[in-house]
Amino acid sequence: MMRRRSAIALGVALLGTAVTAQLFPPQAQTGGWVTLFDGKNLDQWSQIGDANWTLADGIVSADKGTSGFLVSKASFGDFQIRAEFWVDSKANSGIFIRCEDPSKVTSKNGYEVNIYDERPDLSYGTGAIVDVAKVDPMPKAGGKWNVMEITAKGPLMSVILNGETTVKGVTDTLHSKGVIGLQYRAGIVKFRKFEIRPL
Question: Which CATH class is domain 31-198?
């Protein structure tokens, strides 16, 4: 019985590895980190909404539309994210995680890690998790390249922007797994690298 359970466990582990390898080619995996966007293509993403996402010179960017997302084709539960992005001061963007509906990404069916320097309520502006974790003081992201790091493990989430912790170990159990969404809503938004490491 013990051998049978071990065989089943091994089979499940190998199947998981095979699925990961199929979704993410070996060259896109380094040290546990999986590159979802490297400036070359959008193979790991789908587009929803009306943002004018374009790919050029190693960057995916948008500067028109009322609402649009790049949505990951894969779902993730526990992970670390490293994303490099550039926005202007007027930009309204964000990185949505654990979104349960790939066809309709909102802060109600997932978590929105905000990129919005001019949000009327700055407590949920850049570096905050909207309606979950406030940021004080709020850092500014406009006019420069930034690195955002997001960790989600079980109910615990944290956010680091340019080496500064903006959300530290907040707990929320509403959403445990889902897709990732890169948002465009206003201004100029650019992403040039996006990596994830499943935990």
Answer: mainly beta
